[in-house]
Specification:
Oligomer: single chain
Strand content: 15-25%
Radius of gyration: 21 Å
Number of domains: 2
EC number: 2.1.1.192
CATH architecture of the largest domain: Alpha-Beta Barrel
CATH topology of the largest domain: TIM Barrel
Helix content: 25-40%
Organism: Anaerobacillus alkalidiazotrophicus
Bound molecules: iron/sulfur cluster
Order of helices and strands: HHHEEEEEEHEHEHEHHHEHEHEH
Number of helices: 12
Structural class: alpha/beta
Strand order of the largest sheet: 1-2-3-4-7-8-9-10-11-12
Number of strands: 12
Distance between the termini: 16 Å
Cofactor: [4Fe-4S] cluster
InterPro entries: Aldolase_TIM, Methyltransferase_A, RlmN_N, RNA_MTrfase_RlmN, rRNA_lsu_MTrfase_RlmN/Cfr, rSAM, rSAM_sf
Protein name: Probable dual-specificity RNA methyltransferase RlmN
Length: about 350
């Protein structure tokens, strides 16, 4: 077990208005907040000393109260299709992973919100070691910044962010919302709400809270099963938050925000990928403003899950289409590196243990 240091908060955990309040307390003018955000998010400096239009005293006060989080890159793997997978080290020694996916329409960054995860989905390597700790908002922001620094080298920018890396985002709710506001802020990373997607395994009370935040971001539910029996086998969270209550919460979300939800549906050979399951899924989501994203899941050796054949994936998709469901199949990226959630970290951990 790694000891967590007691440290100053990351400056990237501060939203603009919080920074203005801090400046007011330090008898500094409000406009300094704009200058500081400019150094952090536009010039992307790595130390307070580089903020040369601030007085030495102000730079000292900032560094007394905050740390300017930078993530140490332990490994950077680049796939033939351009996908980049980072393994970063946090200041207390834990490691997290972040993936940059390259699309024709831009670059998307997939961020991690927790070190490990306690949700226990049976198909997921990230949950095998349990939850170690939550990430600070600033540590999530720093992943996007580090990805942007890497893209700076080739003159490209991060155009979208997906919160689908390791961890359950709603199990770390306040830092998550702070992170979303900072990357969306035009004075921050200025990533449009419609270009941000978050996915949850279904922590129902937080779905209601999130609907009430009225953020215009894309919202996905990791559903993975058409019935409560199958979902409980794949996702133990279904025992705490049942499928019918989850559907009620999703319905509330779509009505409150006027936005559709995406249901993520990983296909597991023989478990949830048969024709009857497609019919059950169509029944379950009938009448909901939604979209289904079918995910061909990689084998999870530790859990004995196998991939669904391409033929079966297309059969499943066809049934949904015939039932009037809006459905797509997720394009796989980074196949030649360890791009499935948690695989890289699990591998590193094994190597650490072996070492
Ligand atoms: S799939 Fe996501 S929520 Fe489920 S155990 Fe893995 S990291 Fe946690």
């Amino acid at each position: 077990m790694i000891e967590t240091e007691t440290e100053k908060p990351s400056i990237f955990s501060l939203q603009f208005s919080t920074l203005e309040a801090w400046l007011k307390d330090h008898k500094e003018p409000k406009f300094r907040a704009g200058q500081i955000f400019d150094w952090l998010y536009k010039k992307r400096v790595t130390s307070f000393d580089e903020m040369t239009n601030l007085s030495k005293d102000l730079r000292e006060s900032l560094s007394n109260d905050f740390r300017l989080t930078t993530l140490k890159t332990l490994t950077k793997q680049e796939s033939k299709d351009g996908t980049i997978k980072f393994l970063f080290e946090l200041s207390d020694g834990y490691s997290i992973e972040t993936v940059v996916m390259r699309h024709d329409y831009g670059n998307s960054v997939c961020v991690t919100t927790q070190v490990g995860c306690r949700i226990g989905c049976t198909f997921c390597a990230s949950t095998l070691g349990g939850l170690k700790r939550n990430l600070e908002a600033g540590e999530i922001v720093a992943q996007v910044l580090q990805a942007q620094r890497s893209l700076d080298e080739v003159g490209e920018r991060v155009s979208s962010v997906v919160v689908m890396g390791i961890g359950e985002p709603f199990d770390n709710y306040e830092p998550l919302v702070s992170f979303l506001k900072t990357i969306n802020d035009e004075k921050g990373l200025n990533i449009g709400a419609r270009h941000i997607t978050i996915s949850t395994s279904g922590i129902i009370p937080k779905i209601y809270d999130f609907a009430n935040e009225k953020l215009q971001i894309n919202f996905a539910i990791s559903l993975h099963a058409p019935t409560t029996e199958i979902r409980s086998k794949l996702m133990p969270i279904n025992k705490a938050y049942s499928l019918d209550k989850l559907m009620e919460a999703v319905n509330y979300y779509t009505e409150k925000t006027g936005r559709r939800v995406t249901f993520e549906y990983g296909l597991f050979g023989g478990v949830n990928d048969q024709e009857e399951h497609a019919e059950q899924l169509a029944d379950l989501i009938k009448g909901l403003k939604c979209h289904v994203n079918l995910i061909p899941v990689n084998d999870v050796v530790e859990r004995n899950f196998v991939r669904t054949s391409r033929n079966q994936i297309f059969k499943f998709e066809k049934i949904l289409k015939n039932r009037g469901v809006n459905v797509t199949i997720r394009r796989e990226q980074g196949h030649d590196i360890d791009a499935a959630c948690g695989q890289l970290r699990a591998k590193e951990r094994k190597e650490e243990t072996r070492g």
